[in-house]
Design brief:
2 domains, 49% strand, DUF2807, DUF2807 domain-containing protein, Pectate Lyase C-like, mainly beta, 5% helix, single chain, 253 residues, 17-stranded mixed beta sheet, elongated, 1 helix
């Protein structure tokens, strides 16, 4: 059965260009040349990224959205604004004849208040993001459609309020400064490495199995109710953390 399928694929792709255009079957389609184009959309301040799209976010005076992907893959990409939310979708599925992770969306915006990751790929910042308040989400409870919860965040921040809500296996690598950091790991094995994010006040609700690394200056508060530890790279004056399960609060001064 498998041999027959591979034989059929080989025969199809012997025909010139049959696998190298946008009309080829999805599994057989090659990406074509990578091109980057701007997409005009209405204003937004929230972003949802669905599967197989990497996001690069930059702060700038005016809004701009650019998509970089293979020329044969454009037909199955969707870049749309619903309400105040930019929604990014990639319906290019199986990929026998092309590399994985070829689609990146570049967003420049004066203000983003929320990023929801359901991509499985990385969300990164280009420069420092000085948004007043930012929420990072990678969870599937409130939005079941966002079932992919294993993406990555690599962000350089200078925010007033930063909130993280996860219930899967996402990874966060954060640096910079924030006044208030709130981390809510409702379930799963997500890891938050924010020891390079100098945070005046940190609050946590930790039900996960991995660790949260933070750097509080004035206070740390919350509850550890899972297996994972909270590792603090500073001992602030105010410490109000309840430990009710196997996880621990560890100070590394």
């Amino acid at each position: 059965m498998v041999a027959s399928l591979l034989c059929d694929i080989f025969i199809i792709c012997l025909v010139p260009t049959s696998c190298s255009n946008e009309n080829a079957p999805d599994c057989l389609q090659t990406s074509g040349e990578i091109i980057r184009e701007e997409v005009e959309v209405p204003e937004f301040d929230k972003i949802t990224v669905f599967e197989k799209i990497a996001l690069v976010l930059k702060q700038g005076d005016s809004q701009k959205v650019e998509v970089a992907t293979g020329e044969n893959l454009w037909e199955e990409l969707s870049v749309a604004v619903e309400g105040d939310r930019l929604i990014l979708r990639n319906e290019n599925g199986c990929n026998f004849f092309r590399e994985y992770g070829l689609t990146t969306v570049y967003v420049t915006s004066p203000n983003i208040s929320e990023i929801r990751s359901s991509t499985g790929l990385a969300i990164t910042s280009d420069g420092v993001l000085s948004y007043p308040s930012l929420t990072l989400l990678s969870e599937s409870f409130l939005v079941p459609e966002a079932e992919t919860t294993d993406g990555e965040f690599y962000l350089d921040l200078n925010t007033g309020d930063l909130s993280i809500v996860v219930n899967g296996i996402a990874y966060f690598k954060l640096r910079g400064n924030t006044q208030n950091l709130n981390v809510n790991i409702a379930a799963g094995d997500s890891r938050v490495e924010a020891q390079a994010l100098v945070s005046q006040n940190v609050s946590i609700n930790h039900r996960g199995s991995n660790d949260i690394l933070v750097n509080p200056q004035e206070s740390i508060s919350g509850v550890i109710r899972g297996y994972g530890d909270v590792i603090s790279y500073n001992r602030p004056n105010t410490v109000d953390v309840s430990v009710i399960f196997n996880g621990k609060l560890v100070f590394r001064d």
